[in-house]
Automatic annotation (TrEMBL):
Originating species: Hornefia butyriciproducens
Organism taxonomic ancestry: Bacteria, Bacillati, Bacillota, Clostridia, Peptostreptococcales
PANTHER family referenced in this protein's UniProt entry, alphabetically: TRANSPOSASE FOR INSERTION SEQUENCE ELEMENT IS1081
Designated name of the protein: Mutator family transposase
Record Pfam families: Transposase_mut (PF00872)
Role description: Required for the transposition of the insertion element.
Family statement drawn from the similarity comment of this UniProt entry: Belongs to the transposase mutator family.
Amino acid sequence: MAQLNITLNQEEILQLLSTDHDEAFRILLQNCLNSVLKVESQKQLNAAPYERSETRTDCRNGFRDRDLITRIETITLSVPRHRNQPFRTLIFDNYSRSEAALIVAMAEMVVNGVSTRKVTRVIETLCGTSVSKSAVSEVCHDLDKDVDAFRNRPIEGSYLFLTVDATYFKVRESGLVFSKAMMIAYGTNEAGKREILGFAPYRNESPDTWKEFLKSLKKRGLCGLMMITSDAHEGIIQAVREVFPDVPWQRCQFHFSKNIADKAPKKYQSGLRAELQEKFNAKTIQAARTLRDKIIRDYQDVAESSMACLDEGFESAMTVMTLPEGMRRFFRTSNHIEQLNRELKRRSKTIGIFPNDASLVRLIGSVLLEQNSICQAGRSIFSKETYSKLLVSDVRNRLHLIAEEQASLLQVA
């Protein structure tokens, strides 16, 4: 394995840190990334500089300067050149994708005449220069290709669990501003890895739009589902029943608990939440039902509508109890996708109103692509052994029966 050697002038760095922090960090980042580029070149050539080697694949051909826009400021890197085969590096792609999406979305606002002077100043601060129309088109094209490939890739293998949710963004359309729902699907595969399977903007959340979104996932190859987790939006519930009739629905326990507590008088809400959490943490469904009955008896007189909500939604919020105990906490709420939504909101805050759907998809897709890479590099949430035990158990059959019960209740309603 090639060694990474970073040469820093200690006296110069210490002096800069005492006077100009930004310049010090710029130099540190520049030196580190230049060292990474040299290591990447050495690995691709299978030879160190001036090394005679039978495994050498090409020869060095000097360096070229290339600017990299970072949150510190623009830095200039010395990119190695190879004589016959082009040098390849992931630094510019991985470091710049989300930053570029933000810049392009704001630049489109300038180009389309719907921005403010403040946005122009932000662009110049990030880029160090103004953004031309041709430059925007070029960056858009590169970003769109990556996002489109990610968004429409085939879904291969089995995904046991699916979590869906939507968050809203303001988008300009035909001179008007609409709040559009960005639907997102998070899947967990047989290796216990979470993956962002799909996303798409819609004018609203309705049974038809949710059905269209879920059908698009199915068309791309989504199969093997055992359970779908979401909040209690009517559009999701109906769409799940139509598109995945054999898959039971797990109502998000966090949202369910909030729905119940919000209907109770304020002075009882804290205690009620604690008792609901105890019920959700029960070891068996029988124990959970016993705790539910106790909660209803204790609060019926002071929070009647709250207890009606608990009684009505209890079973759909406890579908997860069918799973082995060690797996339940990962699929009983949609909190992980809510965290993702908060990150999307944070990244898009500078934009405010997106100039069009393409700009929205570009920025959100770039962030989701980045977040998906982080998920793939993380730990599995369950082991292969757990998955093997799950396959030979009767869990899938029991979940199928729950799906049938939920479908019959929905028809009655």
